């Protein structure tokens, strides 16, 4: 149930944060800070595409701890951020896990036990880095029912999907569509620019505005500029928060 509140918020989330995307992530954070968005939710992949665990990269782990000390939040974002193709995949699964997500819907159809195993691996990586996470967000926001039970069972306080924020502590489902851009092809970029312009306008009075940013967005000036312009405009009447902070503020109003 959506609750009334007076403090309108903006959550900027940076997806796919890992040693592989660190330089792009730093550029994004620097640009957001220039427009007074100095608080974000950082969606961290513990072993990005099986190319190196974050606990092994001490410099990266230290960088994450510094960002948390500045007020950012770290969120567990899958484990590998990769779903292997399966021979028996039917048309719908192929469309969702290959075309829509480019093979990265890791938690779309895992079993509950399989999801629990990967979640525990991710939590172990965070612990080894001196980090804790109250939230879990699945790659591409694709979280199946069985994996969601595993997420709740391990004590995570929340998850998000593209159009909702689920508070596991209270059982509340907050409807809040996220802006997000697709840059894999020129036609996707053109459609993203038009769609997000309309979506931001339609959400101008929403209690929560979500801005989902991926590192490759910063390789395309038109996308980068729109994200910064829409975020800057929204912050004229909103406060930048993490998901953790926003949910805490909502709970206080119960």
Question: Can you walk me through this structure?
Answer:
With 254 residues, this protein is an alpha/beta fold. The chain has a single domain, classed as Glycoside hydrolase/deacetylase (TIM Barrel, Alpha-Beta Barrel). Helix content is 41%, strand content 15%. Strands 1, 2, 3, 7, 8 and 9 form a 6-stranded parallel β-sheet that branches. Strand 2, helix 2 (58-70) and strand 3 (73-76) form a beta-alpha-beta unit. Helix 4 (112-128) packs across helix 5 (145-153) and helix 6 runs parallel beside helix 7 (221-234). The longest helix is centred in the middle third of the chain and has 17 residues, at 112-128. It is globular and about 40 Å long. The N and C termini lie close together (11 Å).
Question: Could you name the key traits of this structure?
Answer:
alpha/beta, 6-stranded parallel beta sheet, 254 residues, 3-stranded antiparallel beta sheet
């Amino acid at each position: 149930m959506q609750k009334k509140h007076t403090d309108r918020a903006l959550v900027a989330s940076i997806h796919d944060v890992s040693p592989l995307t660190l330089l792009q992530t730093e550029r994004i954070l620097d640009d957001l800070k220039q427009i007074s968005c100095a608080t974000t939710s950082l969606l961290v992949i513990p072993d990005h595409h099986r190319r190196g665990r974050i606990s092994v990269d001490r410099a990266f782990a230290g960088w994450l701890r510094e960002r948390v000390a500045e007020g950012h939040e770290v969120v567990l974002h899958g484990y590998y951020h990769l779903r292997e193709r399966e021979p028996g995949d039917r048309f719908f699964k192929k469309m969702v896990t290959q075309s829509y997500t480019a093979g990265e819907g890791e938690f779309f159809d895992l079993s509950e036990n399989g999801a629990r195993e990967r979640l525990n691996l991710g939590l172990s990586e965070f612990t080894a880095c001196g980090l804790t996470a109250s939230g879990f967000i699945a790659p591409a926001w694709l979280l199946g029912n069985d994996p969601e039970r595993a997420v709740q069972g391990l004590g995570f306080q929340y998850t998000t999907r593209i159009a909702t924020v689920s508070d596991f502590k209270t059982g509340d489902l907050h409807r809040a569509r996220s802006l997000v851009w697709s840059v894999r092809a020129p036609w996707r970029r053109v459609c993203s620019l038009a769609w997000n312009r309309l979506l931001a306008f339609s959400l101008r009075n929403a209690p929560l505005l979500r801005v989902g940013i991926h590192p490759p967005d910063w390789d395309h000036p038109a996308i980068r500029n729109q994200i910064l312009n829409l975020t800057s405009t929204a912050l004229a009447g909103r406060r930048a928060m993490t998901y953790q902070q926003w949910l805490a503020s909502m709970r206080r109003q119960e």
